[in-house]
């Protein structure tokens, strides 16, 4: 769907064009109107307009000046110039200024439709060319480092992905790793020297560290890296199956880690702490290995600097497992913000299923889940300027600790349903108030009312307001304005002695002939005939 802008300093020309052509059938989702060059430029800055139809002879900003500005800022826009026969030579300059077409007044509708249809086809062809496979692949290659970084970051945060899914993504991103081989991680923490740098300098240093790491690891390992939420650099290392090595992969990782510390200290002058992990399946154990490295930094390195640590757990002790579905993305906080109620329920079911599946989960895990859920509930309510207790009731929030996952699920679902019902009802009420405010403003300002004026009154963007109004009423705002104007015109014609041109002016129409045409379409007769029949 396209958008078109009609421009002429004679309002009846613009208004007549806006209603005399089947714009929606022609493929236009919105028709904008401007009565001066200045107003046209303002609309061009606000909306994604594709075609401009403009008069050539206008005061203040002429059609030629308008098209010059369009060519400077919006090169994709097609422009149709309207000109009188006496201005034919003047129109030639419009062609030189890259007008797409020009038409002589008076304009025949079928002629204008044909010209606009041709321009729409040009736009479609241009878009298809721009969106060609070659251009798409070029854009993809430009964003490839960011896509690789984001995918690894998601795996580190616990995103679940099957081996076939990941293998397909790895192939798309030109990463030579295989889900059939194990991996280990090297987590690099830049020390004080790097933390003192500004953002731009730090980006260059991180790039240098990654390049040095690739030089050291690439002869023996495939390597994949990203920066994590702690501003650490994380490297996934997988032994290359195309190179034979007599050494122990773990020893080779440790040796390269030591070299990385030395090279960075010598070449850049900053220190690093490096933690390497044991080996695990890919991708299933990426999250677990990463958590072991972060835990090792926290527990065994702390504020010390320049440390290398092998985080392989040889102690034989049984670690306390975290409740992973509770913390893997998307988080409950994000789903509440998006009003993703189905996702919230699915997340809750996944958490409770994990509690039920693993009998080793303690009551402490159930208590942890409840605290996490309550925090999300309070966050969502407070962010929407509500007190949670007022929505769900304090007795529900003050229940005794739960002993089973099923009781936890039952309680959480009850709170979620109450939250959903409250905010869905509030949302519908707010829309009702919005429509009432729009109608009140229109009724009080029929002499001069526009979409922008209404949007300013209700403090919304005009495009968003139009969509909201159409969603709630099934009609366009312009349809309602026209209906109310015609209804008031009918009242004035019957109950007042105002002349027809005075009724037209009372309703904001600058041209009485245009008003008569609209009223005839509304009532099936002219205003004069309507008044005569009512008497």
TrEMBL record:
<protein>
    <submittedName>
        <fullName>Response regulator</fullName>
    </submittedName>
</protein>
<dbReference type="InterPro" id="IPR051552">
    <property type="entry name" value="HptR"/>
</dbReference>
<keyword id="KW-0805">Transcription regulation</keyword>
<dbReference type="InterPro" id="IPR001789">
    <property type="entry name" value="Sig_transdc_resp-reg_receiver"/>
</dbReference>
<dbReference type="GO" id="GO:0000160">
    <property type="term" value="P:phosphorelay signal transduction system"/>
</dbReference>
<feature type="domain" description="HTH araC/xylS-type">
    <location>
        <begin position="436"/>
        <end position="533"/>
    </location>
</feature>
<keyword id="KW-0804">Transcription</keyword>
<dbReference type="GO" id="GO:0003700">
    <property type="term" value="F:DNA-binding transcription factor activity"/>
</dbReference>
<dbReference type="GO" id="GO:0005737">
    <property type="term" value="C:cytoplasm"/>
</dbReference>
<feature type="modified residue" description="4-aspartylphosphate">
    <location>
        <position position="55"/>
    </location>
</feature>
<dbReference type="GO" id="GO:0043565">
    <property type="term" value="F:sequence-specific DNA binding"/>
</dbReference>
<dbReference type="InterPro" id="IPR009057">
    <property type="entry name" value="Homeodomain-like_sf"/>
</dbReference>
<keyword id="KW-0597">Phosphoprotein</keyword>
<keyword id="KW-0902">Two-component regulatory system</keyword>
<keyword id="KW-0238">DNA-binding</keyword>
<dbReference type="Pfam" id="PF12833">
    <property type="entry name" value="HTH_18"/>
</dbReference>
<dbReference type="InterPro" id="IPR020449">
    <property type="entry name" value="Tscrpt_reg_AraC-type_HTH"/>
</dbReference>
<dbReference type="InterPro" id="IPR018062">
    <property type="entry name" value="HTH_AraC-typ_CS"/>
</dbReference>
<dbReference type="InterPro" id="IPR011006">
    <property type="entry name" value="CheY-like_superfamily"/>
</dbReference>
<feature type="domain" description="Response regulatory">
    <location>
        <begin position="3"/>
        <end position="120"/>
    </location>
</feature>
<dbReference type="Pfam" id="PF00072">
    <property type="entry name" value="Response_reg"/>
</dbReference>
<keyword id="KW-0963">Cytoplasm</keyword>
<dbReference type="InterPro" id="IPR018060">
    <property type="entry name" value="HTH_AraC"/>
</dbReference>
